[in-house]
Amino acid sequence: MDRLLERDTVLADLHRCWQDAQLSRGRIVLLRGEAGVGKTTVINRFLAGLSPRPRVVRGWCDPLATPRPLGPLLDVLGGLSGERPARVRAAIDAGDPEAIYARVVGLFGDGHRWVCAIEDLHWADGATLDLLRFLARRIDTVPVLLMVSYRDDEIGPQHPVAVLLGDLVTSAAVSRITLGPLSAAAVAHLAAESGVNAEALHRITDGNPFFVTEVLAAGPTALHEDGLPDTIAEAVVGRLARLSRTARETAQATAVCGPRAHPALVAAVYPGATAALSECLDAGVLVADADTVGFRHELARRATIDQIPDYQRKVLHQRALIALENPPIDPNRLAELAFHSDKAGDTDAVIRYGAAAAERASALGANRQAAELYALVLRHSDNIPSEQKVTWLEQHAFSSYVSGLTDTSVEWLREAIAVRHTLGDPLGEGDNLRWLSHMLYPLARTTEALEAGRAALRLLEDLGPTRQLAWALVNLAELAAFGCDPACADYAARALALGRELDDPAVLVRARCSAPLAAVACSDTGWDQLEAVWREAMTTRGLSAHAAVAGLMVCWFAALHHHRSADDFVGEASAFCKAHDVATFHALVIGAAALVALHRGDWARALEHANDVLTQPKMSPSHRHLPLVTLALIHARRGERPVAELLDEALAATEPDDLFRLGPVRAARAEAAWLAGDDDTARTEAQSGLRAATPNSDPWLVGHLQRWAQLSGSAPTTAPVTESVTPYRLELAGDWRAAAAAWTERDSPYDAAIAQLGGDIDAVQCALGTFRQLGARAAARRAQQRLSQLRGRSPDLRRKATSADPHGLTKRQRDVLELMAAGRSDAEIAATLYLSPKTVNTHVCAVLAKLGVHNRTQAAAFAHQQLPASR
User: How many other β-carbons are positioned within 10 Å of the β-carbon of residue 794?
Assistant: First the structure.
């Protein structure tokens, strides 16, 4: 039975109440929560776990125009027979409330233990509520656990159930249990490997289990504006249908006004809202805080908007625009004005409010909102002069880039470059070319990035000492650092000198990062200097984007180099990026966090981080790079599913000479092949990666490839020798003890176990234990093969014997088949061959599969015909 997420405490509380009820002290449990929170699921799970089994009866209240009098009691009686239920039915038929109440108490007093569940009390009739009042006063005299569920979001102050709840406040026999929504962590667990982004899923569902499961069932498209699952839409429409017309139109007006709206704005959009708002709140369709009203869930708001005819929706947006335009205009509402202008079809207002709102959002660091607003303005800018339009193009490109929408940023920036060229503006054109270079690199288009960067430098070098030239030099210095190109030092020195001349703090920070970054990449030195510049940038006002860039560089190299402080780096960098709304850098940091968690042996957290990035829309190849590698390696090590598709995508986003990106992918492909027992492919993959190495290449990337080349059976002769001593270097030198110790010191248990495979029997047994603890079943198989070799048992000989058999049977499987043909049972075969019955059963299953037969009888018949020829 699958465990219900975050419901253990609730189930434990129910079991405690049940224990009280078994001691003849009856209990009433009020189980409350919003629609879709899982009340019925919890009741079902609780009832399924009761042992010994009590008498269980259930009743339901139904959303009928006229509720059934005593409907839940009739449901309860429908499953019972005998004298006591018959007496209750007779009292109901006679319409005698006092007799009904007394006989229901007698029904539960027959000497048995009872559990009675009544669901959806918010739809109950008055007679049912009176019966519950009566039972509540006498519940401690009968051995019954009475569970009553209801939607607390539909119980307003005038609701009849609210009166009942007030009556029960002082009863010691009544327990109240609230079911809350799922946490972000629980939603992430449910969304793992579904293709649906967990953060977005939690945001639009607010953790409501019904909405969560329906969106997951519909797939990633359900997160789109037009992708609402039918089940959710129908649930919302059904709820709206129970409102009066005025209340329904109030809810629709609120939906048009946005996620949260001031009641005065709702009233301006729909004058009838003032009188009907309380009905919406009492019904739980809307919720309110001190100043605003809105929907509990964004999905409910979307479903409500979908019910409004197009023409009516436009009218409502026009009314909202008129109301919000009343002076003085609040700058914080510029984005709302732009939104309503667009929906109302007012182009001039879109330009007026949209551009101002985008500039304000950008200034406040709300980059994703700025990108959306600039895109909105540009859709309406056909008649805008080029001098103004190009500025919006550039600002949209930048906002998109820092929001993680790299593809979009490149598209708009190319258009801006063309406009700058037409306007005869080489300074602006050169700066945009530099930006284009910077944005192409995350798309794994390294050659194009270098070409654009060099083109920018050529265009800007003749224009004097400008800020644009300084940034062109910084850009080339960083590209050279990633490529371990010695030219990095010259570019960085020139950028640093120009930054000092121009007194530009941002240029200085990035130029100061480049030289230690190259040292880290090429020789694993310079860490202290790089970290110091990063921390200085984080504490300097106005340098948040540059501090984020420095932080992600620290995190990526820390992950690739198994740095001891990698966990701390990714934690700080992630928090900084989230605080400053630089989503593109945050996603890159989370990609590094996935690899760090993989190294630490925390594969559950690694999967969570990897899926977090991979399920986000429009992520660049660089964003997906480390998450793809991480996900593939976990699956390959566990031997649980094919990983070719993941690693093919990662490889397709690399260039043959770009070792920084190519190295981890080729190493992962080599490891996956090695784990599958395909040493030839593992060797080919490793050597393909090593062909991109140079004498200046990162020793960690080179060493990683050399490890798999050596483990798959060849000495890595194609790679240059690196001077830096890494644990890989120790492995290659045959010093497995030092290598394992070095990996252990870096908190990399899997890598330490790989190093131990080069040791003696005790070392390999230790490695096998680590693999089993991590759940690395494929790696454990390789360790077992190594143990067989060390103990003088040759897997190669067994493979030859198996391949020589015409049916692919091993010697042991042929022995089992002969005994099966002789009519022996599993126990008899086990005794004859000195095996355990479980092992024999495994062999029998393998024999049936290899022979293509369905049972032991068919296998025996096959053996009688074929065994003489195969002996």
Answer: 12
CA 426, CA 330: separation in Å to the nearest integer?
39
Helix (H) or strand (E) holding 119: strand 114-119
Q: Find, among 260, 255, 225, the residue nearest to 332 by Cα.
A: 260
Contact (CB, 8 A) for 564 and 575: no
Stretch 338-364: mean pLDDT: 92
CA 110 to the chain's CA centroid: 52
| pLDDT confidence band for 801 (50 / 70 / 90) | low
**Helix or strand holding residue 29 (H, E):** strand 27-33
Same domain, 777 and 830: no
**Contacts of 348 by beta carbon, 8 Å cutoff, 6+ apart:** none
Mean pLDDT of the chain: 88
- Look up the CATH number of the domain holding residue 826: 1.10.10.10
Q: How many CB atoms lie within 10 A of CB 307?
A: 16
How confident is residue 846, by pLDDT bands cut at 50, 70 and 90?
confident
Report how far residue 302's alpha carbon sits from residue 320's, in angstroms, rounded to the nearest whole number: 18
3-state helix, strand, coil in the chain (%, to 5): 70, 5, 25
Contacts of 477 (CB under 8 A, 6+ apart): 488, 491, 492, 495, 511, 514, 515
Q: Which residues pair with 144 in a beta bridge?
A: 114
| Per-residue confidence (pLDDT) for residue 804, from 0 to 100 | 57
Cα separation, 598 vs 749, in Å, equals 10
Judge whether residue 716 has pLDDT over 50: no
Question: Sign of the CA dihedral 429, 432, 436, 438?
Answer: positive
Query: Is 250 within the bounds of a domain?
Result: no
Model pLDDT for residues 465-495, shown as the tens digit of each residue? 999 999 999 999 999 999 989 999 999 999 9
Domain CATH for 111: 3.40.50.300
- Strand spans (E) along 664-819: none
Specify whether 108 is located in the same domain as 60: yes
Residue 861 belongs to what domain range?
804-870
Domain boundary among 123, 152, 178: 178
Residue 260 parent element (H or E): strand 260-261
Q: Same structural domain for residues 772 and 810?
A: no
What single letter denotes the amino acid at residue 293?
Answer: V
671 and 779 together in one domain: yes
Residue 395, in any domain of the structure: no
Which of 790, 820, 853 terminates a domain? The answer is 790
3-state secondary structure 708-737: HHHHCCCCCCCCCCCCCCCHHHHHHCCCHH
Q: Are the CB atoms for 84 and 106 separated by under 8 Å? A: yes
Q: Answer whether residue 127 is part of any domain.
A: yes
pLDDT tens-digit map of 580-633: 888 889 999 999 999 999 999 999 999 999 999 998 877 889 999 999 999 999
Got the DSSP string for 600-659? HT-HHHHHHHHHHHHTSTT--HHHHHHHHHHHHHHHHHHT-S--HHHHHHHHHT--TT-H
Q: Please check the confidence at residue 677 and state whether its pLDDT lies above 50.
A: yes
Local structure of 35: helix, strand or coil: coil
For residue 652, being part of any structural domain is answered with: yes
| Spatial separation of the C-alpha atoms in residues 366 and 372, rounded to whole Å | 10
Q: What is the pLDDT of residue 29?
A: 94
